[in-house]
Specification:
Radius of gyration: 20 Å
Number of strands: 0
Order of helices and strands: HHHHHHHHH
Structural class: mainly alpha
Number of domains: 1
Distance between the termini: 45 Å
Shape: globular
Low-confidence stretches: 268-282
Strand content: under 5%
Helix content: over 70%
Largest sheet: none
Mean pLDDT: 86
Length: 282
């Protein structure tokens, strides 16, 4: 078994184990979360079981077959893991709330490290197709991702700075700042840099774009699932309108992720591979 396939199988098993141990199933891991954030953790565990882990296993199978889209299927769940694990560890209230999630620190940090390592391996094995006419459209897509994330935080930040924070913020300020830091400090700059790189034909820009699309497809799905879970569990902080908006964005990026994977699978010139002219002279 090659390293990419082996890492994908290991991460799938780790995510499955963590999801089953959490509040979704066995309740052995008791996160020091408020009820609203526990509802979100339940949704995330469900997404890991029904989407992230199966994608990893399918990607592992494709990697063993030498498919050029294996990396595209694996990088999304790997980045989702690396993005979510800090929230398990740092988003908890270790002073004010009961729980025992600190006992599972080794599991969560191991999944975080494995997620980043697997994302790097998937990145290096991801085929990219040279399509110059599509780069402006992809660049606009990356800017829209960045704008969506920024605008999502503006109302909450303004409310905090004005001294009238929202109920969602007051429910768990530490978790809010952690997620805001990850989104605004990592995802937004990567998306903007990918947009600039696509417009200037930078060598790695297309890979960055595909990674952002794969990440956003799964994260969007997970966040939409959180919104619906909060509604189904009659969480007072749940919002039907927000759940609908997040579901629409998740569906859009899932479709884009499928399309980019299909495009990468199609025969065509691979970026970085030089096509030598055939000499027919005798």
């Amino acid at each position: 078994m090659n390293r990419l396939a082996g890492g994908a199988v290991a991460l799938a098993l780790g995510l499955g184990t963590n999801s089953l141990l959490g509040p979704l199933a066995l309740g052995i891991i008791r996160y020091r979360y408020t009820p609203s954030y526990e509802n979100q953790a339940i949704a995330l565990d469900a997404v890991n079981l029904v989407a992230a882990a199966p994608l990893l296993l399918f990607g592992a199978w494709l990697a063993l077959r030498g498919s050029r889209i294996a990396g595209l299927l694996i990088i999304g769940p790997a980045l989702l893991t690396a993005y979510m694990m800090p929230q398990y560890i740092l988003g908890a209230d270790y002073v004010g709330l009961d729980g025992n999630n600190e006992r599972f620190f080794i599991l969560h940090i191991a999944l975080f490290i494995l997620g980043w390592m697997l994302a790097c391996m998937a990145w290096s094995g991801t085929a990219t197709i040279t399509e110059p006419r599509r780069r402006p459209g992809f660049a606009l897509l990356m800017l829209l991702v960045a704008a969506f994330l920024v605008l999502r935080y503006v109302p909450v930040l303004v409310s905090v700075w004005s001294g009238a924070p929202t109920a969602m913020y007051l429910d768990s300020p530490t978790a809010f700042w952690l997620i805001a830091f990850l989104d605004l400090g990592i995802v937004v700059p990567v998306a903007v840099c990918a947009a600039g790189g696509l417009l200037t034909a930078a060598p790695l820009a297309e890979r960055a774009m595909r990674a952002v699309v794969a990440w956003f497809a799964l994260v969007g799905f997970a966040v939409a699932a959180m919104g619906w879970t909060m509604l189904l569990r009659q969480d007072p902080l749940g919002s039907a309108s927000e759940a609908l908006v997040l579901s629409a964005f998740a569906a859009l990026f899932i479709a884009l992720a499928v399309w980019t994977a299909r495009e990468a699978h199609m025969p065509g010139p691979v970026k970085g591979v030089r096509n030598e002219p055939t000499d027919h002279a005798s």
